[in-house]
Specification:
single chain; alpha/beta; Rossmann fold; three-stranded mixed β-sheet; 12 helices
Length: 335
């Protein structure tokens, strides 16, 4: 069976491709431009696994290519979505491609005549924004777009649009809502969720802000996509993908325990709020971090564990494996 993965060169998409190839599926991945896409690491995956991998050109911002991309595919995993490293001046820069791109993929899947199910990668950002962090969030919760920033708003509106389309068309849909994704990189492209680990390892963050998240390992999340595709009863459901909550200082302590003795200058002290506020005036990622200060949003993956038999590894393993891959790929200098 052939599975379409959107945004094939992305961090999560690469692990989704690896999961499928290892399990014997053939894969087609979409890229924006076949001439310039960096797919060497993905071709290497296919060679190692002996799997069948091909690429198709399609962009979330346009209709061209999507009919051809889904042709002959039994399943679609819509993984691609804009994930900004800073707060955009115009929220539509994030919202429009997320919502319109999702609908483009779903329309192509519905009209293909071959696609049995779509697995959509949404986000925890579509679950808990606009609510007090004094309880455990579940799949019954939805973020309030009126109280959410551009990224959370984009994920919420895109998922809402997907469910509306599925109800009206009869398309079989499963949605996954992952928390902060960590784990080994497959190439040297550092995405937003990995930036904190990179800074800690490079010694550019001597003190660590009071921010934290539920962590899900990228490999476990890829496996959850497959379980959501293969389990008949998953149709029509949302599933939160969340491991344990971990503060950024706890991540730094785990990294210091492994890498300080090897010459890495890893800071584990507490950053005062005023310092992050000053950083935010000059550093776009600091502005993002301000919104997480002191929040202990906790989400439950009990539904995925109960209905799909899914489990996630300890977040400390994901943190360490992220750092190891950064050293191996040259993202962090070897000491």
């Amino acid at each position: 069976m052939k599975v379409l993965i959107t945004g094939a060169t992305g961090y999560l998409a690469g692990h989704c491709i690896a999961e499928l190839l290892t399990q014997g599926y053939s894969v087609r991945g979409t890229v924006r431009d076949l001439r310039t896409a960096d797919v060497a690491h993905l071709r290497a995956l296919a060679e190692r696994t002996g799997g069948e991998l091909e690429f198709a050109e399609a962009d979330l911002t346009g209709d061209a290519g999507w009919t051809e991309a889904v042709d002959g595919c039994a399943y679609v995993w819509h993984v691609a979505s804009p994930f900004p490293s800073n707060i955009p001046r115009d929220e539509d820069e994030v919202i429009r491609p997320a919502v319109e791109g999702t609908l483009r993929v779903l329309r192509a899947a519905e009209s293909s005549g071959t696609v049995r199910r779509v697995v959509l990668t949404s986000s925890e950002a579509a679950v808990h924004y606009g609510h007090d962090s004094d309880r455990v969030f579940t799949e019954a919760d939805w973020s309030d777009p009126g109280k959410a920033g551009p990224y959370a708003k984009s994920k919420t509106l895109a998922e809402r649009a997907a469910w509306d389309f599925a109800r009206e068309s009869g398309l079989e849909l499963v949605v996954l809502n992952p928390c902060t994704i960590l784990g080994p990189m497959l190439n040297a492209d550092v995405n937003t969720s990995l930036e904190l680990i990179r800074r800690i390892m490079r010694g550019t963050l001597p003190v660590v802000p009071k921010i934290g998240w539920n962590v899900v390992d990228v490999r476990d999340l890829a496996r959850l996509h497959r379980l959501a595709m293969e389990t008949p009863s998953a149709a029509g459901n949302r599933y939160i993908a969340a491991g344990q909550f971990m503060w950024a200082r706890e991540m730094a302590s785990v990294l210091a325990g492994r890498y300080r003795s090897r010459g890495y200058r890893i800071g584990t002290g507490a950053m005062p709020y005023w310092m992050l506020w000053v950083m935010a005036r000059f550093d776009p990622s600091g502005r993002l971090a301000l919104g997480f200060w002191g929040r202990e949003d906790r989400s439950s993956a009990a539904k995925a564990e109960r209905e799909l038999g899914w489990t996630s590894r300890p977040p400390s393993d994901s943190v360490l494996d992220t750092a190891t891959s950064m050293i191996e790929l040259g993202v962090v200098p070897r000491r």
